[in-house]
Amino acid sequence: MDGAKAYYADLKARVARVGRKPDEQFIFPGIVVYTDETDEEHMRCIARSRSSGRDEATCAP
C-alpha cells in the first residue's frame, strides 16, 4: 500500500508542476489479473518480460 500512496503523491506533484490543480485531477487505480496454465509458466513469462524490458501485460494470452 505504501507504494500506491507514493505513486499517487508523485502523480499529484507532477500535475501541479505542469500548472494543473491537483485537487481537480482524479486518479483511478485498477488491478488487472492475468493467468497462465500454471504459476511456474506465468512466473517464467514475467521473468522473460522483465529481463527484456517489456511490460508484464505481454504475458497475457
TrEMBL record:
InterPro entries: Luciferase-like_sf (IPR036661). GO terms for molecular function: oxidoreductase activity, acting on paired donors, with incorporation or reduction of molecular oxygen. Gene3D superfamilies: Luciferase-like domain. It comes from the Bacteria. This is Uncharacterized protein.
